[in-house]
Protein 1
Amino acid sequence: MTQSVETRPPFLPWNRPSIGIEEIAEVTDTLRSGWLTHGPKATRFEQAVRDTLGVADAFAVSSCTAALHLAFLAAGIGDGDEVITPALTFCAAPNALLQTGARPVFVDVEPVTFNIDPKAAEDAITDRTKAIVVMHYGGHPCDLLAFRELADDHGLLLIEDAAHALYAGCDGRRAGSVGDLATFSFYANKVMTTGEGGMLAGRSDLVQRARLLGRHGIDSSIWQRHGTRSTADYEVIAPGLKYVMPDITAAIGIQQFRKLPAFTARRAEIAATYTRALADLPGLATPTVLPGVQHGWFLYSIFIDPDSAPLTRDQVAEHLRTEYAIGTSRHFKPVHMLRVYRGAGTHPLPNTETAAARQLSLPCYPAMTSHETDRVISAVHALWNRSA
Ligand SMILES: Cc1ncc(COP(=O)(O)O)c(C=O)c1O
């Protein structure tokens, strides 16, 4: 039933960050410290992520997009190279690839987890292929071992766009720890946030190269020169860019990363509640979690089949927003359908297009109360009941 404006509860956004007094105290400490740019706090944050992932090195940067761009540059990806990537993703990796002069080659996802399909990726390999960029859709890790083997068999680099998947894994192997490089996002809606921010992690030779390129190509960081050399005493040894994460931002990251296990546990609890409550609705599919997987639950996706559900995906989103004051989102408008990429020619993408037409992201984040989770469940049930 439609609720009147007077009785309508406050708008429940699709996403909302969880920032506590710990983050505020850490930022205040940084502001008082006299060191604001990439320095001791960014280094602490990098070490924490590096050690948790068990990788050789990590570099904190201004966004996941910056991390992707640096990953491609550090890997020597450029003019004439082809890089295999899913189309069911955000535009960041394909855009960064185009910036290097390389060509993204879009392949399909598999229909269970909506991660890039290893067989489709293999079929797309040519003698120009330089790398495969996998993406852990919504926080469900892709088949990392299959992709590691595929990359090794063909002499390709494996890059994990793990923007959704910090703290996700499979059989004890963490997403972001298997590729030659991995990138993470700390954008405001991610599983942990620094407002804007990202991390590049992986092989030490590649991360070191990225670190150089991410600070103008200058041979030492300002923090390394501080107190030991004149800050003006530097050399530029590569044509770099400026992508470092400031310490003000890293301060938030240190505290958010400490809380990430608890955040992920709460996301998993909400996801389980949704699945229990929604799985039997006709035409509505809830997410599948494969055995051995620790899901990151950046997204809680439902998939609405227009032939068997009483409403289309877009109708559900519209009713939830206008009648029940509940925000949702869609992930993603596939990249090959975005204007810059239209007409570029791709491999067949039937699963990508079906998922993109049916997928709806429900609110699923630690700042949500149980009452808010119940509100979403009741609203979806009400829509199905009245439309059946
Ligand atoms: C899969 C994926 N990769 C990369 C990004 C870009 O992240 P950022 O905003 O930190 O640059 C996003 C952002 O939503 C994303 O979903």
Protein 2
Amino acid sequence: MKITGLIVLLNTLVIASTATASGEHSGGHHGDEIAIGMPGKAATVTRTINIEMTDAMRFTPSNITAKKGETIKFIVRNAGKLKHEMVLGTEKDLQEHYEVMKKSPEMEHADANMVTVSPGKTGEIIWRFTKAGKVGFACLQPGHYDAGMKGAVVVGGKVMATATFAADAPQEKPTAPQLASASNAMTEGEIRKVDKDNKKITIKHGEIKNLDMPGMTMVFQVKDVAILDSVKAGDKIKFSAEKSGGAIIVTAINVIVPSN
Ligand SMILES: [Cu+2]
């Protein structure tokens, strides 16, 4: 009986560990951690840094050091008369995003690694720096990045040259020709917020092919407020978006998986 019991126990352990391993691999999703770190929680903030943005196209301070694992709250004040923003990212991501912004300056962001601040206002980012290396930040308003509105957070720790900057490695861009029908294709997304009063909806979305826009979280206007009646935060959707009158508007929403 003793031996049988032990064999059963061993079998259980083997099954359990196999399940864990395969679960991790098939999931392939470790929270929201990306190359530059992950969104931080207010409760675990270890340091607050005040940053000023000005129309001289500068961040002050622009060079910041952090410890690996540190969660920093950036209180970002716009001291200028123009709209500015602070976006954390690898240099490659910032440059790519900047090109998108030049094409679509009407974009309104809602991702955790960025904050857009109106003149005279203050915004904040809470970010956890999980990897040693250099995390850039920049204002991606058209013209501002080119004018040198950028800075960096240097995260201390043992720098693993190969791993830390893996995200900067050149990636093969898909070169498949875009079909004409792509302009009518719907984009996948998940609703983050519904704001009927302002006719706005915040969507974490995949690539919007007809607008040549990569996946991110954005605030959209809606063509008709009635389409917000049957949707709620958490719904997984397919939606259509287009540019119109200086804004990016959502013209249709199909709920694929409603939230509970
Ligand atoms: Cu700016």
